[in-house]
Amino acid sequence: WRFLMKFRILITFLISFLSMGEAKVDGKAPEFSLLNQDNEMVSLSQFKGKNVVLEWTNHECPFVKRHYETNNMQDLQKNYTDQNVVWLSIVSSAPKKQGFINNNQAKELTAQRGAHPSHVLIDENGDVGRLYKAKTTPHMYVIDASGMLRYNGAIDNLGMTGALFNTDLSKAKNYVKLAIDALLGGSDILEKETRPYGCSVKY
Questions:
Q1: Which residue of 57, 70, 138, 188 sits 20 to 30 Å from the alpha carbon of 159, by its own alpha carbon?
Q2: Do residues 101 and 107 touch, judged by C-beta distance below 8 A?
Q3: What is the tens place of the pLDDT at every residue in 115-161?
Q4: CA 6 → CA 3, 16, 17, distances in Å?
């Protein structure tokens, strides 16, 4: 009986240990550090006290292109960075894979598209993408001012259907907007987790 109890305690400890650092909604957002477009090291922890959006992106993905060609993503970025929200665009494409960019290309893309991220972060090894289990581009996360992950999923409700390419994106149900507005307004986020859609992250 004692052996069984010790075994159960060991299993519980191992499960707890393995789940540490996982990106789980309403859990602590895993810490990370990446180089930005100016070759400066940026860490999630430096933004404690601010709401943070993580946007996994790949400029060659048709789904990402749609959000940028319509200025949908730029409008969101500007709206919330103007409200002191930190917006981190993360590129986890590996070298020689679709969407890979270096820091100079990141600066060029931001300028060409009139984008407004706080930083573009280069994750060429895919370590941060895997840490957060980022599956698609776009894949969106919202972290609150205390460092807790409060939203994980799609940018909106248009999914993998042709609706994305035939709809005024400003009319879509934008889950990221709803989540950030709830945090800024001090209310509960009603939809905390949705299924992300888009191109697979090119690890």
A1: 188
A2: no
A3: 999 999 999 999 999 999 999 999 999 999 999 999 999 999 998 66
A4: 5, 15, 16
d(CA 154, CA 147): 20
What pTM does this model have? 0.88
Question: What values do phi and psi take at 128, rounded to 5?
Answer: -75, -40
Q: Which residue has the tokens 């969101």?
A: 76
Alpha-carbon distances of 70 from 14, 103, 112, rounded to whole Å: 47, 24, 14
pLDDT band, very low/low/confident/very high, at 171 (cuts 50, 70, 90)? confident
Our measurement of the distance from residue 188's CA atom to the centroid of its chain's CA atoms, rounded to an integer in Å, reads 20
In contact, 131 and 23? CB cutoff 8 Å = yes
The reported pLDDT for the residue numbered 164 is 78
Tell me if 114 sits within 8 A of 71, measured CB to CB: yes
